[in-house]
Amino acid sequence: MSNSFSSQRFSIAPMLDWTDRHCRYFHRQLTGDTLLYTEMVTTGAIIHGKGDYLAYSEAEHPVALQLGGSDPAALAQCAKLAEERGYDEVNLNVGCPSDRVQNGRFGACLMGEASLVAECIDAMRQVVSIPVTVKTRIGIDQQDSYEFLTDFIGTVAQRGGCDTFIIHARKAWLSGLSPKENREIPPLDYPRVYQLKRDFPQLTVAINGGVKTLEEAKAHLQHLDGVMMGREAYQNPGLLAQVDRELFGRDTPMADPVAVVRSMYPYIEAELAKGTYLGHVTRHMLGLFQGIPGARQWRRYLSENAHKPGADVRVLEAALALVADKIPQEA
């Protein structure tokens, strides 16, 4: 049975090669309320791939699967599998601008095909009871007027039945910019997303793009239903320890980073027993002590030793010794 979750109030963005199951398990040690997203998984990988692309740990809830695809039947099949596996939400990627994604006819290029997106959402909603959501941009190429955005949202909401949109507040250039440049070069337009919420008050609207602090998240929450944080949450995961208190009003003690590292040991030992390399887990933990003396030594020690044959939790203990006594204690 899927865990229920309150809203899109705060989530960590789906990030290719970053938000894998090891990353999500680690993030969950820092925050209990944040909605976690998988990397984007294509329908083809799920239906035809040899691996288990839906694998996750029960500890990750609430967790959402992000799908890439544009065939309504295939998306419906994958959404049904996701619900059967216990995912709390299915999200359709209508924001990724990479050439590879466009060639597969999914991602941001779908912004130009609102009717098809609506058909995809409707097909998924027909077969599942969990939320089906859309992550998109504010426009593509020269199609970046506010009217274009509202036409897209209106069509997908009315004809597809979608009631939740996560909006990356930049447009996407489908040619000429790399995916990395598309995350940095097109200017952010937060007011446009705020206006969208005013014009579609019945929809749940969350914002993504450039959010670096919880103070910024709080400012966005004055206007919107939710905030999705991307690279900052990954590169500086220590800030996630404050999310439950700061954004969800929980009266819980802030997670101690040393305790968080040690809370990973049973998971790591279980993974090592399955043949997972230590570095596949610890690569997501490198930024945990950002801003604390000894953080560089922590990163360096893990980077140099986690990939060695036989590396186990003793590597983490040795790395902790370089930083643990330098962490300021809460009063």
Question: Secondary-structure blueprint of this entry?
Answer:
Layout: E1 10-12, H1 21-30, E2 35-42, H2 43-48, E3 63-68, H3 72-85, E4 89-94, H4 99-103, H5 114-127, E5 132-137, H6 146-160, E6 164-168, H7 179-182, H8 190-199, E7 204-208, H9 214-221, E8 226-229, H10 231-235, H11 243-246, H12 257-263, H13 265-273, H14 278-282, H15 295-305, H16 313-320
Parallel strand pairs: 1-2, 1-8, 2-3, 3-4, 4-5, 5-6, 6-7, 7-8
Helix pairs in contact: 3-5, 5-6, 15-16
What report would you give on this structure?
This protein is an alpha/beta fold and 331 residues long. It has 2 domains: 10-246, TIM Barrel; 257-325, Four Helix Bundle (Hemerythrin (Met), subunit A) (Up-down Bundle). The protein is 41% helix and 13% strand. It has 16 helices and 8 strands. The chain has helices spanning 21-30, 43-48, 72-85, 99-103, 114-127, 146-160, 179-182, 190-199, 214-221, 231-235, 243-246, 257-263, 265-273, 278-282, 295-305, 313-320; strands at residues 10-12, 35-42, 63-68, 89-94, 132-137, 164-168, 204-208, 226-229. α3 (72-85) packs parallel to α5 and α15 (295-305) packs antiparallel against α16. The two termini are 40 Å apart. Residues 1-5 have low confidence and may be disordered.
Strands side by side in the biggest sheet: 1-2-3-4-5-6-7-8
What is the CATH homology-level superfamily of the largest domain? Aldolase class I
Tell me the CATH topology of the largest domain: TIM Barrel
Low-pLDDT windows of residues: 1-5
The chain-level mean pLDDT equals: 93
Enzyme class: oxidoreductase
Binding site for FMN: 14-16, 66, 135, 168, 208-210, 230-231
Cofactor: FMN
Organism: Pantoea latae
